[in-house]
Amino acid sequence: MKNNIIILSALLFSSTFMAQNKGLVANSNSPYSKLQSVSLEDVKWTNGFWKEQFDVETKNTLPYMWNLYHNDSVSHAYKNFEIAAGLMKGKFSGPSFHDGDFYKIFEGMAATYAVTKDKKLDAEMDKAIALFAKVQRKDGYIHTPVLIDERWATLGPEEVKKQLGFEKYNMGHLMTAACIHYRATGKTNFLNIAKGVADYLYDFYKKASPELARNAICPSHYMGIVEMYRTTKNPKYLELANNLIDIRGTTNDGTDDNQDRIPFRQQTTAMGHAVRANYLYAGVADLYAETGEKKLLDNLESIWDDVAYRKMYITGACGALYDGVSPDGTSYDPTVVQKIHQAYGRPFQLPNATAHTETCANIGNVLWNWRMLQITGEAKYADIVELTLYNSVLSGVDLEGEKFCYNNPLNVSDDLPFQQRWGNEREGYIKLSNCCAPNVTRTVAEVGNYAYNLSKEGLFVNLYGSNHLNTKTISGELLEVEQQTNYPWDGKIVLKILKAPKETHAFFLRIPGWSSGAEVSVNNSKVEGKIFSGTYFKLEQKWKKGDVIELNIPMPVELMQANPLVEEIKNQVAVKRGPLVYCLESDQLAANSSVNDVILNLNSKFKTDFIELRNRKLLTIEASATIAANNSWNQILYNPISAKEEKEITVKLIPYFAWGNKGKGEMTVWMSH
């Protein structure tokens, strides 16, 4: 049955490479995808929030990361390629996923080039591609630790074996980066290298035992191989993608940590290492878009419910625990109760000060929900894309774009009596685990492609921000729209129609799930009818140049509480406005006070005002609060509630993504009330 699906899907492909095939995912011919991507170059930020962020990306983050990964005294990534190519003798240095980090930065450069057409970027990419070609083995294999040892015999068999875990991860990022490069430039030089990799993997998995095959962790190659199928139309790549799912969970040594203790088709809850999990779920969503296998979608939806309603932070972050066990409490058999790193914990287990929430896991949440949106057309997935991008992805990089977080806690306390594995300050280079910085680099460069989708009915507007869209409908007609807004600081969004199809066309406006009381007007005339939060609102008519659609979404300050089963934050509140989660930093308090002592006044007037921080305008929320008179907890575990008067104070809360940009200090999202 599966082979018939693959053949049918291949036959549905057109022979030409259509314009809308040039997005982050080339799903215009994916038979089970309800929405399609616009091309990478179709969206240009014009001003406001995402234009500011894109400017930081192009002026600071991308050149900083490109130079950093060419600096062999720090990262050694580019140097590894040079050694593997035989340009010099040397040893492999760095983590085994170093190659993949460089490919992620390369992907960010390609996505940036698609928008800017900067010839310098094109030349830099061609130079790197030429080096990749020298490194690649004749059979298509490319992974510098192994190739360096093959050429120079500098590692030894045991050290080489340690490097193989991220081998397929690196190859996955290579394939994805090559597809993006091809769509951005039209050149096939990198795509040809990726074909060699894909062919190698096809042959490898044809012959490999399940035991050998399962050493692939953090499966970016699932997304990569499906994207290669979409790009090249080669049906054997779809066969490989199916095989990758079939082979999971068929060994006796599988682990929950790697999501392969049991076959994927038996998995209904989120388990294990959150980065690996979210990458897997994104890859399975890609596979479903091509095959339509109902079991895949059923499981993805069940897992999504588990994450969204029981295991995700208010910021969209995933992977609560530094170390956990799964399953919990069912057996003493060590093959059943397994230690898990960077874990999806038990339902409602969401600590704050010790939250792991790796930036890569949060980006994986975006990748997964983005694909779920396209195969279903349901707005709830776009809500999480927005939530995660604005909060737990952007928190991974400072406002100036050159320092990064590996993990993203929701509370930072000076009095925490132990040293955590990962620090609570952003760094320019995170030794041994700098994977998140390259991931943020490519993600910010690509946000524009998340803003819109196409369907047979019309245009889906997913993300709001001032931009210019110049694209073609699925039927090939020109569609040009100018979006003007000060979102996320303001809920007024204006869409000006510059070019539109002659016949009836629909605009689908996302009404965020967090919103209430949204209103829509066309040419200053209010549209009647019920507008439901958490859906797309459909406007269908014949459009002409100069028509104006206006969406107004109220943005009151909201106090959020958690399900009482989330023990860590029972009887606490968080402050949210629009898509943004806010936090309190200790610079607002007296020197001897802690953010953990603050009691927020729920009846505050919550005044909003703009401040400038590191050359960025941020909307702050002013609130009234109190601090207990007796707040000393030195050598005290429990204390009577004090009857002394509490001190009244005024504090300014800032968006969570901007925390830590004023220097070292405390921070909290959740506060007592």
How would you describe the overall organization of this protein?
With 673 residues, the chain is α+β, with helices and mostly antiparallel strands. It is built from 17 helices and 24 strands. Strands 5, 16, 17, 18, 19, 20, 21, 22, 23 and 24 form a 10-stranded antiparallel sheet that branches. A hairpin with a 2-residue loop joins strand 17 and strand 18. It is globular. The N and C termini lie far apart (58 Å).
Low-pLDDT residue intervals, each spanning 5 or more residues: 5-20
Number of helices: 17
Global morphology: globular
Secondary structure tally: strands: 24
Q: Could you tell me the mean pLDDT?
A: 93
* Intertermini distance: 58 Å
The percent range for helix content is 25-40%
Q: Radius of gyration, Cα only, in angstroms?
A: 25 Å
Structural class category: alpha+beta
Strand content: 15-25%
Largest sheet: 10 strands, antiparallel
Concise synopsis of the structure shown:
The protein is of the alpha+beta class. Helices cover 35% and strands 18% of the residues.
Characteristic terms for this protein:
single chain, alpha+beta, 24 strands
Topology:
Elements: H1 2-11, E1 36-37, E2 43-45, H2 49-68, H3 77-84, H4 98-116, H5 119-135, H6 144-152, H7 157-162, H8 167-185, H9 189-207, H10 210-213, H11 220-232, H12 235-247, H13 274-291, H14 294-311, E3 321-326, E4 338-343, H15 359-376, H16 379-393, E5 411-412, H17 436-446, E6 452-454, E7 458-461, E8 467-472, E9 478-485, E10 492-499, E11 505-511, E12 519-522, E13 525-526, E14 535-541, E15 548-552, E16 557-560, E17 572-577, E18 580-585, E19 598-600, E20 607-613, E21 616-627, E22 647-655, E23 667-668, E24 671-672
Parallel strand pairs: 7-11
Antiparallel strand pairs: 1-6, 2-8, 3-4, 5-23, 6-7, 8-9, 9-10, 10-15, 11-14, 12-13, 12-15, 16-17, 17-18, 17-24, 18-22, 18-23, 19-21, 20-21, 21-22
